[in-house]
Design brief:
Blueprint: H1 2-43, H2 46-49, H3 51-69, H4 73-96
Helix pairs in contact: 1-3, 1-4, 3-4
Length: about 100
């Protein structure tokens, strides 16, 4: 009986580590996506055509990276999503001009 409890506990711990790793991988991928969008915005002239969106996207990306490096995945995801949204809005506006 005691072995069974320890076995279940070991399986639970293993799955906990595996699931926590998925959040890190997801956030890392989203940071790369945000960096790519900010780079695209810069290449499209976002600094001069859409300065508010460009600056917002950069600052949210920086905040997301800081939170990620401190191990705060929840806030990091929020900042990264806001960075991507600002960069996408800037790209849409810059392409119109």
């Amino acid at each position: 009986m005691e072995k069974r409890i320890w076995g279940c506990l070991a399986v639970f711990i293993l799955f906990s580590f595996l699931l926590s790793g998925c959040g890190i991988l997801y956030t890392t991928k989203e940071i790369k996506n945000a960096e790519n969008l900010v780079s695209e915005l810069k290449a499209a002239g976002g600094e001069t055509k859409t300065p508010y969106e460009y600056c917002s996207a950069q600052k949210f990306l920086e905040a997301g990276k800081t939170e990620y490096n401190e191990g705060h995945m929840g806030p990091s995801k929020g900042f990264i999503e806001r960075s991507k949204a600002a960069a996408q809005a800037g790209l849409n506006e810059a392409r119109k001009k």
